């Protein structure tokens, strides 16, 4: 796996898939870099106005206007499906057999709304995706030791059906909890039938690693990391 100092990180498991292109951006990757980077310049970027929602867009061609939502799916070549993050979890879904991909923005609100589960179900309906054949890659996000949330968030996850194991008690703040975004979304994937061996994780904490961008570490900082997946 590439080091965080690179412009973007890649997943070794994806390398043999000749038609796939992907990357989890670091703080070094800017939007203007896509147009001048070999291997990326020929793609059309699709960048949403993200809402922390469960809204999914299926793309058969470049959209005529900017979309609002938090997940993109396609089986059309030439598009780079982008989600921007700075602590939230970016997830790529790859259906190798049907040559289809998804890019999903999983913050705590989207995770609570089960956007990743909904995206898999959408791929099932549209492309015939079989969950047990999916490969999922979870990118850098704020780690469970750094993601403190209030009791309202924990209560909301409980009502949404998540197990208590996605939280731990905060040692620094009685009454608050630490949320594990990776564990919560892995739980969703496994519940759908995605194989454990097909759930890959880029284990960097955005809050701890200064090569990555963190909203919690640098409040008010507007920059985001660009995470992209597409079909050649």
What topology emerges from the helices and strands here?
Elements: E1 8-9, E2 20-25, E3 44-47, E4 56-59, E5 71-74, E6 79-85, E7 89-95, E8 100-106, H1 108-112, H2 115-127, E9 135-138, E10 148-149, H3 151-159, E11 167-169, E12 177-179, H4 181-192, E13 199-201, E14 225-231
Parallel strand pairs: 3-6, 4-5, 9-13
Antiparallel strand pairs: 1-2, 2-14, 5-8, 6-14, 7-8, 7-9, 10-12, 11-12
Kindly describe this structure.
The chain has 232 residues and is of the alpha+beta class. The chain has one domain (8-144, 181-231): CNF1/YfiH-like putative cysteine hydrolases (4-Layer Sandwich). The protein is built from four helices and 14 strands. It has helices at residues 108-112, 115-127, 151-159, 181-192; strands at 8-9, 20-25, 44-47, 56-59, 71-74, 79-85, 89-95, 100-106, 135-138, 148-149, 167-169, 177-179, 199-201, 225-231. The chain has a six-stranded mixed beta sheet with strand order 4-5-8-7-9-13. It has a five-stranded mixed beta sheet with strand order 1-2-14-6-3, with no helix packed on it. A three-stranded antiparallel beta sheet has the order 10-12-11.
């Amino acid at each position: 796996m590439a080091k965080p100092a690179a412009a973007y990180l890649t997943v070794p498991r994806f390398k043999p898939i000749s038609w796939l292109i992907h990357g989890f951006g670091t703080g070094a990757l800017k939007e203007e870099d896509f147009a001048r980077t070999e291997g990326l310049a020929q793609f059309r970027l699709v960048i949403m106005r993200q809402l922390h929602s469960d809204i999914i867009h299926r793309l058969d061609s470049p959209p005529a206007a900017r979309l609002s939502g938090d997940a993109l799916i396609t089986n059309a070549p030439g598009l780079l499906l982008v989600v921007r993050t700075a602590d939230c979890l970016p997830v790529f879904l790859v259906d190798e057999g049907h040559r289809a991909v998804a890019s999903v923005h999983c913050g705590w609100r989207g995770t609570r709304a089960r956007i990743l589960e909904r995206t898999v179900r959408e791929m099932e309906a549209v492309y015939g995706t079989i969950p047990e054949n999916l490969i999922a890659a979870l990118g850098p996000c704020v780690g469970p030791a750094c993601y403190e949330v209030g009791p309202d968030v924990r209560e909301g996850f409980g009502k949404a059906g998540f197990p208590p194991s996605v939280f731990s008690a905060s040692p620094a703040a009685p009454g608050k909890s630490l949320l594990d975004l990776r564990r919560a979304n892995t739980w969703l994937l496994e519940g759908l039938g995605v194989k454990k061996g097909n759930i890959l994780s880029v284990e960097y904490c955005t809050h701890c690693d200064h090569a990555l961008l963190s909203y919690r570490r640098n409040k008010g900082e507007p920059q985001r990391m660009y995470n992209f997946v597409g079909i050649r």
